[in-house]
Amino acid sequence: MSKNVQDLQEELQKLVDNGPRLDEDQANVLKVAACLLAATAVKQARNKTLRNDRRKKSVWVREWLLNRDKYGMYEKLMKHLEQGDVKSFRNFVRMDPGMFNQMVEDLKPLIQKKRTNWRKPLPAGLKLAITLRYLATGNSYKSLAYGFRVAPNTIVSIVSDVCQAIYDKYSETAFKFPTTTEEWKKVAQDFFRQVELSTLLWLHRWQACQDHSSTSLWQSVLQLQRVLLDHYASPCGCPVQVHVR
Predict the structure, then answer these.
(1) Phi, psi of 144, deg, nearest 5
(2) How far apart are CA 110 and CA 103, in angstroms?
(3) How far apart are CA 158 and CA 154, in angstroms?
(4) Whole-angstrom Cα distance, residue 159 to residue 132?
(5) Is 9 within 8 Å of 40 (Cβ atoms)?
(6) CA quadruple 181, 183, 185, 187: dihedral positive or negative?
(7) What pTM did the predictor assign?
(8) Distances (CA, A) of 5 to 38, 44, 216
(9) pLDDT tens digits, one per residue of 150-188
(10) 102: left (phi over 0), alpha (psi -120 to 50) or beta
(11) How far apart are CA 38 and CA 235, in angstroms?
C-alpha cells in the first residue's frame, strides 16, 4: 500500500481506539472509509502483481526465430532460387536477382543497422526481401514472420523503414514530375491523345453493333484499327498496338 493509504488507516485506527463513543451514523461513515481503504489496498496489490508478471517473460526469444540461418526463406529458399531457378526468384520478389542485389547495395546505408555487443543486426537483403514480398502478395505480418523467421513486431518497422528508404533513394529518378510549362503541356497532350483514341474506338464499335451481321461488325472494327494505327503513331517510332476486345 502507498504511504497515504497507510496514514489514513492509522488515523482511523486511532479514532476507533482513543475516540469517544460513536453514534450509529458515525459508525457507518467509519465502515465506509474502511471498505474504501481495503478496496484501494487490493487494487494496488493486483497492479503490482501484474507489473511483476509482465517483467517475467517465460521466453525471451522463441526457438524458431533463432533458427533463421537454417530454415529462413531469405537464407535458404531465395539463395537456392537465385542459383538454380531465376524465373521463380523473379516471381517471388517480382524482380531479377541482379536488380535485387543492386537495390540491396543502394539501400544498405539507409536500412542496415550497426552491430552491437548484444545482438547481430538483420541483413539489408533480408529486410528488402520481406518488404518486397509484403508488397507483392499482401501477406499478413504473422505469415511473413513464420516464413522469414522474424518477429511480427519487427516486420512492422522493417516494412515502414524500407519503404521510406526506397522513396528517399529513388524518388528523384523514378518519380520525376514535370517542372516546366513545356513538360506539362506534353503530359496533357499525351493524356488527351489516349482519351481521344479510346473514345473513337468505342464509338465506332457502338455504331457497328447496330448492324446484326457479325461479319460486318468485325470488318468495321478491323478497318477502324488500321485507321487508328495510321493516325496515332507512337512519338518514339515504336509500333502501336490497339487491342480490340
Answers:
(1) -65, -35
(2) 11
(3) 6
(4) 9
(5) no
(6) negative
(7) 0.53
(8) 9, 10, 96
(9) 999 999 999 999 999 999 999 888 777 788 888 888 888
(10) alpha
(11) 85
